User: What shape does this take?
Amino acid sequence: MPSTDPKNALVTGANRGIGFEICRQLARKGLRVVLASRNEPKGREACDKLRQEGLEVDLRVLDVKNFESIQKTRDSLIEKYGRLDVLVNNAGILLDSPGFDSSLFDTRPETVRQTVETNLIGPLILCQMFVPLMREKGYGRVVNISSGSGQFSEMEAGSPAYSLSKTALNALTKLLSLELQGTDVLVNAMCPGWVRTDMGGPSAPRSPEQGADTAVWLATLPKGGPQGSFFRDRKPIPW
Assistant: This one.
């Protein structure tokens, strides 16, 4: 980029877990990080923790299910910074009950609707609002936090609403990349693996630091980096 200003990064669902760790690692790399949280008190607490580490973070209260909330965030970031360089669509929910052992035949349509609204429609609107600005500025990185549950190649039964939403998020990643061919706006998806978070549970083998690593790598790709691919541990994996 011609500008020497720090790159700006928005991370959704970032007051805890993988999103919080993505914010930490991006800020350590010198990016100006906007930590987005649906819950304002928890978001402030997360920002305070990172600031105590000497990291530069800004807070935005953002509900990815609410169009006006997304629009307000966009307007405030453009007013303050003039652009957004990095978008990490991390916010996601798992409503399947009981968790990863639920059956497709018992899944309520409303569970699927709510899951898709957060895990797909929110990222779609965020991309619609920010990616054209990235293309106009000539630089952008979009990282969609997906899951092996959304892979056709590795999908297993047990979390139907969640799997459907992540498969659709993978499709969104591919479609965006096709429209952005020939630009320096790189869009990719990644699977963090089974991580010790509120969603993954305490028995998960991977730490939030490990889960965040590939997302941070994709968020800081150099020009000519991969586009429209799916990664785990910085290596491409099948869709």
Q: What stands out?
A: The mean pLDDT is 95.
